[in-house]
Amino acid sequence: MTTASGVRAYRRVLLKLSGEALMGSDAYGINREVLARVAAEIKSVVAAGVQLAVVIGGGNIFRGIAPSAQGMDRASADYMGMLATVMNSLALQDALEKQGVPVRVQSALRIDQVVEPYVRRRAIRHLEQGRVMIFAAGTGNPFFTTDTAATLRGAEIGADVVLKATKVDGVYDRDPVKHADARRYETISYGEVLEKRLGVMDAASIALCRDQNLPVRVFSIHQPGNLLRVCQGENIGTLVKGD
Prior knowledge:
Elements: E1 12-17, H1 32-47, E2 51-56, H2 74-98, E3 103-107, E4 116-117, H3 120-128, E5 132-136, H4 146-157, E6 161-166, E7 171-172, E8 184-185, E9 187-189, H5 190-196, H6 203-212, E10 216-220, H7 226-231, E11 238-241
Helix pairs in contact: 1-2, 4-6, 5-6
């Protein structure tokens, strides 16, 4: 891993995008301008020689724990959320292909007429051949978030880091929207995140990162060029790592 300007710091990364990140200023769904911008950011990272995989949430369309799912069977609602991530994944695939980026989507749920099934060795081969991998449908199981799916897939493919792209520029000791004096951490341990319940990712995903010694970099996706700068080793956002 190097940090010289213009040189990739990571060989392989797992990018976690929330579904809400694709909405832009819209109240629902996918904003095409935002989608194109995210695709351009990914293209710049691939051009720098980084192998990149993506996990996208489905909260812009449907989420199993959202108010709209209240009263539904939780497992059924979670499966609907997984299908929402497939829709987002297909949209990102289309946006990347329009910019000339080779890409494959693999789903934890079998939808063979639409996308490939998730096969770990095949996914790694795609990455080695320079294709962006998009992992859809979470883990394929209800009661697990896409944060957990991102950590799981990152560990499986041997990613150097999980990049959590959010609306804020890192991890704070309290909500920076409500508290002007909130302090941003440059680095923080897995244990502190769990102990202080900072909400970086759900507890299961942070615990898995800790067990696999897989660092997490939390940064803002809304600042143009941030994704490439992170992959080049710039100290942007917050790094979650071991003690």
